[in-house]
Specification:
Blueprint: H1 11-19, E1 22-23, E2 27-28, E3 35-37, H2 41-50, E4 52-55, E5 59-65, E6 71-77, H3 84-101, E7 109-115, H4 124-138
Parallel strand pairs: 3-6, 6-7
Antiparallel strand pairs: 1-2, 4-5, 5-7
Helix pairs in contact: 3-4
Length: about 140
């Protein structure tokens, strides 16, 4: 009986391969570390209380300067959005948009993106259009 050998790959390598370089639950991660995931509850609260907010039909974006050379992005969905499959799909779509627009985002901000679609399913093109317009309104595009 022949045994199959497994190729052991570190978690980071496997994650980069499977997710196309995306970091954790938050967003895209560049090789220079310019955009990283915002995970701390304290940071989310700081953006929600002291940040500048803009909204459209599909998204709301809050920004707050963080005093570093990194931009941290956190994703949220509205509370009543059920089931989990739908919430996770919207987050995946938004992470893909972030990875495409990553080069244009200025550094030094904490950004919270709240996804609240009026209808389901949601087209990525509509999310991307709203994301770009909100980023321009907030002044976080270079």
């Amino acid at each position: 009986m022949a045994t199959r050998s497994r190729l052991l790959v570190s978690g980071a390598d496997r994650f980069d391969y499977r997710m196309g370089g995306l970091a954790g639950r938050g967003c895209a991660l560049t090789s220079q570390g310019a955009v990283v995931s915002l995970k701390a509850t304290k940071s989310f609260l700081e953006v929600s209380k002291r940040g500048k907010w803009k909204s459209t039909r599909w998204l709301s974006i809050g920004i707050f300067p963080n005093g570093t050379n990194q931009t941290r992005v956190g994703l949220r969905t509205r509370r009543g959005l059920k089931p989990a499959v739908v919430r996770n799909r919207l987050k995946r779509q938004t992470r893909a948009i972030l990875s495409r627009q990553e080069r244009d985002i200025r550094r030094g901000f904490d950004i919270v993106i709240v996804i609240h679609p009026p209808t389901l399913p949601t087209k990525s093109s509509e999310l991307e259009r709203d994301f770009i317009s909100l980023c321009k309104q907030c002044g976080i595009f270079q």
